[in-house]
C-alpha cells in the first residue's frame, strides 16, 4: 500500500514501515516473533527484545498482535497521542510496553 509518507508492507515475519532510505549494509535494529529472531539476526539485523522498534526509517513489530501495535504506533506518529487513545478505545485494545526508538 503506497501513501504520501512512504510505503507500508506486510511481510511473513513482521510488519515493516519504511519512511525513507538508509545506506546499504547498515545493520538495522529490528524485532520479530520470538520464533524467528534467530533467523532475523542471521540476515544481519540487530535484534532488539521489544514489541515495536522504530529505527528511524524502518519500523518492525513482533508478536501475535504486531499488526495492532505497529498500526497504533503509526497512528500516533501521523496523528498524535489523543487520536491514538481514541483508536485504542474503539478497538478495545491497549498497547503493551513502549516503542524502542533509535
Features:
30% helix; disordered N terminus; alpha/beta; Rossmann fold; 8 strands; 102 residues; 26% strand
Q: What portion of the residues fall into strands of 2 or more residues?
A: 25-35%
SS-based structural class? alpha/beta
For the biggest sheet, the summary is: 6 strands, mixed
Q: What is the 3D form?
A: globular
Mean pLDDT: 79
Number of domains: 1
Uncertain residue ranges: 1-5, 9-20
Name of the top-level CATH class: Alpha Beta
Strands, count: 8
Helix content: 25-40%
Number of helices: 3
Strand arrangement, major sheet: 1-2-3-7-6-8
Which architecture name does CATH use? Answer: 3-Layer(aba) Sandwich
Radius of gyration, CA atoms, in whole angstroms: 13 Å
CATH topology tier name: Rossmann fold
CATH superfamily: Class I glutamine amidotransferase (GATase) domain
Give a description of the structure.
The structure is a single chain. The protein has 102 residues and is of the alpha/beta class. It has a single domain, classed as 3-Layer(aba) Sandwich (Rossmann fold). It is built from three helices and eight strands; from the N terminus they run E-E-E-E-H-E-E-E-H-H-E. The strands form two sheets. A six-stranded mixed beta sheet has the order 1-2-3-7-6-8, covered by helices on one side. Strands 4-5 form a two-stranded parallel sheet.
